[in-house]
Amino acid sequence: MFLQRIGNKGIRLGTLFDRAASRHPASPVILDHELDVAPERGRRMTMTEVADLVDDLASRLWAAEVRPGERVVVHKTNGFDITLLACSIARIGAVPVLLSPKLDGDTVCELVRRVDRPHLVTDQDKLDHQLPADVFGLTRQVLLASGSHERATRLAELAGSARVAPVTMPPDHPTLVTHTSGTTGTPKLAVHTGRTFQARYRPQGTVASLVGRSEPVAIHVSFVHSRMFTAMPITILQGHPMIILRDDDPDVVAEVFRQAPPGLIEAHPNTFLRWEVLVDDPRAPLANVKYFSSTFDAIHPRTVHLMLRASRRESPQFVQMYGQSEVGPIAGRTYTRKRGADADGRCVGSPFPGMTGIRVVSRDGRRPTKSSPGYIEVRSDGRIVTYLGEHERWEKQADGEWWRMGDLGYRTKWGCLHLLDREVDEIEGIDSTLEIEDTLFARMPELVEVIIVPDDNGTPVPVVCTRDDKPLDLTAWKSAVAGLPAMAEPVQWKLDDLPQTATTKIKRLELARLLKAERTGA
């Protein structure tokens, strides 16, 4: 799209912190954890210090004989150093491949196999407890961010290596590989270029520009997700103090925000859901927030309403963007206090003029509607260029400039896109499981999760989680489901037992399988 192409020279991850430091050298980066690769740096650094650390790590990788064009898988214990290592790898012209710390060892080995003998950056804990020994035969070498292992090289041993000049790769060269959520099976490896990433920057940069530069921006996003690599550059290049959260525990977050009140928060929908308890926290950790932002799944209106209620700023807004790892943000909408709790949560907004496009393709030859939704297809210059090792799967979703999202929905006469369900999650006889879940959240404040999946007979089964795992009030439940499509009796689970992706999305197909196994004893 033409506005994404103007002046697009590629995102240049390798020199990102250098450029930020040249503009805002003393701008702070505040963490809620120490970095495994540099625990001595503590939890607060200036932009200049972060840029120096990225340069230092790049020199160690170069000393380990990582060279331009080569691939480096990063799969380590969760922390912001995953993101910094990615920038360091890009700095020497290599291609970082980021794998979530939540992935099991067998899945990691399968993805490493697809990458075709990369370097691997991991840690002792992963090698000792999660990764099969086969991983050594699948890689050129194994480098350790922390700990020690007889078959691996510690990055700490390479400290003090001579600094090397940044290597600038062409903007259409792969700059980063992330993976999809894996909600429908083994994750796919999405290949981004410098140019596609820069194209994603345009729609999102406008949100952060609305916040005063002296106000901190807080980010709680998976460190391996593509969203981190647009949220972070936007924040630091505009000069905002940056708060990076690894932990979404409400008590931990409240204390961090008490000391450094953010003006904007970017987080996963399920993270905001968990933070609903902060609304009445006496420390008022959300009082200074002017903008809440989420770019993943559609968010429940109840959560939006509570977040806006917690802010003491004049006219706070909740910005929701609809997108996908493969294409970046596609559509957006805003909520206000006047239009929050009662808003239609299935409306995910309109495309960004001159930057993204949306069409809904009919499945039955008629105009897509709520009762007969169509396939959602989008276009954006932010689209990935392939799935690594699976280009045929990429081609199945691509139709020229258009990209099949795997979602079902329709557009209103005003052009607003309504997202009803994932194609694989559709249940016969129900217009939208997501809409029913929104309704149940609004009617039952004690719910912290509700997922509707089909049983073997196609009957909708609500799986519910309550705050503090209190027993579900069945009387309140019967009242809440009044007027909704017929469903089986609810099944209560603990939230931590639900299968989740790196971005805390629930793996619905996996949940349905687990539910079946629980019921049959298989």
UniProtKB/TrEMBL annotation:
Residues 17-384 form the AMP-dependent synthetase/ligase domain. SUPFAM superfamilies: Acetyl-CoA synthetase-like. InterPro entries: AMP-binding_CS (IPR020845), AMP-dep_synth/lig_dom (IPR000873), ANL_N_sf (IPR042099), ATP-dep_AMP-bd_enzyme (IPR050237). Coiled coil: none annotated. PANTHER family: LONG-CHAIN-FATTY-ACID--COA LIGASE (PTHR43767), NONRIBOSOMAL PEPTIDE SYNTHASE PES1 (EUROFUNG)-RELATED (PTHR43767:SF1). This is Class I adenylate-forming enzyme family protein. The lineage of its organism: Bacteria, Bacillati, Actinomycetota, Actinomycetes, Kitasatosporales.
